[in-house]
């Protein structure tokens, strides 16, 4: 994997009420090894998950009454400060200003106009995850939002994304494009099925067997939010970990 290009997913972090408990869930679920992060001003209690010896994700404290446990996507940037200026100019908010982890990264957390949190990742020696699209690593990220038209303006202004809209059943699914490459997706939250779920970024981890991983998540104390379902791009399921963080898995379509 080469260094993620600006505007493409670089990393995912789990903000949780119980990093150790979360590690006990994800390590056997995805075959991750767990290590402590290098010391830094924001890394107290932060863990790094490795797949086959290569970093793929992180986890740390940060959830609370105002911020329930959640996975957060980080998008690569050449300049975290300039990205923050574009975010605020386009109607977003700064949640955490740029912070340096010397020799590793400069990161910041933002919220888009609908409130969906995301981060930016400027490499200071660590480009982000070492591997994508293999079992146990990030394979897709999807904005799930109630303000899809505004999102097109916002992410276009901040990252230069363009929207490729295609019908998907009763809704229109958007694939974000950058320099001719699909970098992420967007699902509009239409109808009553979404309840009071807030706009958010959904992360998808690759798996080799969606049904088996969904069953394992249940045995490990998680829940199956949406059972395994076939889509044109594969078989996916939406799960929650024991602390309540939503995430998705995506594997090959089940054989007929």
List the helices and strands and how they pair.
Blueprint: E1 9-16, H1 19-30, E2 33-36, E3 47-51, E4 54-61, E5 70-76, H2 80-89, E6 93-101, E7 105-111, E8 117-123, E9 138-145, H3 148-159, E10 162-168, E11 171-178, E12 181-188, E13 200-206, H4 210-219, E14 223-231, E15 234-240, E16 246-251
Walk me through this protein's architecture.
- With 256 residues, this protein is an alpha+beta fold.
- The chain has 2 domains: 9-123, 2,3-Dihydroxybiphenyl 1,2-Dioxygenase, domain 1, CATH 3.10.180; 138-251, 2,3-Dihydroxybiphenyl 1,2-Dioxygenase, domain 1 (Roll), CATH 3.10.180.10.
- It has helices spanning 19-30, 80-89, 148-159, 210-219, and strands at 9-16, 33-36, 47-51, 54-61, 70-76, 93-101, 105-111, 117-123, 138-145, 162-168, 171-178, 181-188, 200-206, 223-231, 234-240, 246-251.
- A hairpin with a 2-residue loop joins strand 3 (47-51) and strand 4.
- The longest helix has 12 residues, at 19-30.
- The model has no long low-confidence stretch (mean pLDDT 92).
- The low-confidence parts are none
Per CATH, the superfamily of the largest domain is 2,3-Dihydroxybiphenyl 1,2-Dioxygenase, domain 1
Radius of gyration: 17 Å
Task: Report the top-level CATH class of the largest domain.
Answer: Alpha Beta
Shape summary? globular
Strand content: 35-45%
> What is the total domain count?
2
CATH fold annotation of the largest domain: 2,3-Dihydroxybiphenyl 1,2-Dioxygenase, domain 1
Q: Determine the structural class based on helices, strands and strand pairing.
A: alpha+beta
Label the CATH architecture of the largest domain. Roll
Q: Total helix count? A: 4
Largest sheet: 8 strands, mixed
Mean pLDDT across all amino acids: 92
């Amino acid at each position: 994997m080469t260094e993620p290009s600006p505007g493409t997913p670089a990393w995912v972090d789990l903000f949780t009420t119980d990093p150790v408990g979360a590690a006990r869930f994800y390590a056997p679920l995805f075959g991750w090894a767990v290590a402590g992060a290098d010391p830094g001003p924001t890394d107290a209690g932060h863990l790094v998950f490795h797949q086959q010896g290569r970093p793929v994700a992180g986890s740390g404290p940060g959830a609370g009454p105002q911020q329930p446990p959640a996975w957060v996507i980080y998008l690569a940037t050449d300049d975290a400060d300039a990205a923050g200026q574009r975010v605020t100019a386009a109607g977003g908010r700064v949640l955490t200003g740029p912070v340096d982890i010397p020799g590793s990264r400069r990161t910041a957390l933002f919220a888009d106009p609908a409130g969906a949190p995301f981060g930016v990742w400027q490499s200071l020696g660590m480009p982000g995850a070492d591997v994508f699209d293999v079992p146990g690593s990030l394979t897709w990220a999807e904005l799930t939002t109630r303000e899809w038209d505004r999102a097109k303006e916002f992410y276009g202004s901040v990252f230069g994304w363009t929207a490729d809209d295609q019908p998907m059943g009763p809704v229109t699914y958007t694939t974000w494009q950058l320099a001719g490459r699909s970098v992420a997706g967007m699902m509009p939250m239409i109808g009553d099925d979404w309840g009071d779920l807030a706009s958010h970024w959904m992360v998808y981890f690759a798996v080799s067997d969606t049904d088996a991983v969904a069953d394992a998540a249940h045995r490990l104390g998680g829940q199956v939010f949406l059972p395994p379902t076939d889509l044109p791009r594969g078989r996916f399921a939406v799960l929650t970990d024991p602390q309540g963080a939503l995430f998705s898995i995506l594997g090959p379509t089940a054989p007929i």
